[in-house]
Amino acid sequence: MLTHFQLQSLYENKQMPGWRISFYYKREKYTAIYHQNGSIEWTSSIPPEINKINEQIHELMLFHVYDK
User: Fold this and answer.
1) Which of 12, 1, 5, 4 is nearest to 60 (CA)?
2) CA–CA dist 18, 63 (Å, integer)
3) What is the pTM for the complete model shown?
4) 24 burial via Cβ count (<10 Å: 0-12, 13-18, 19+)
5) What is the pLDDT of residues 21-40, one digit of tens each?
6) What is the layout of strands, in order, in the sheet containing 28-34?
7) E-state strands within the chain
8) Residue 48: its pLDDT value, please?
């Protein structure tokens, strides 16, 4: 399970899509850029169980960004 999930817009114009995300997984911090098309560009090491992590990130992004 991801903890301390945070997101921040990449651009001053917050209407433009693209977000910097960070979270902890198994006591390790991970950072990435979440693109409009749903792709994830890792800016830290890639977490284990990457498919499971990607699903959780997509669900969190749907909740925090797209379902407002």
Assistant:
1) 5
2) 15
3) 0.86
4) middle
5) 999 999 999 999 999 899 99
6) 3-9, 19-25, 28-34, 40-42
7) 3-9, 19-25, 28-34, 40-42
8) 94
Low-confidence residues in the chain, pLDDT < 70: 66-68
Sign of dihedral through CA atoms 39, 42, 47, 48?
positive
Number of domains in the chain: 1
Domain of 52? 3-66
Tokens at 66, concatenated: 């797209």
Helix (H, G, I), strand (E, B) or coil at 52: helix
pLDDT value of residue 66: 65
Look-up of token digits 């995300």:
21
| Whether 61 contacts 19, CB under 8 Å | yes
Q: Which amino acid would we find at residue 34?
A: Y
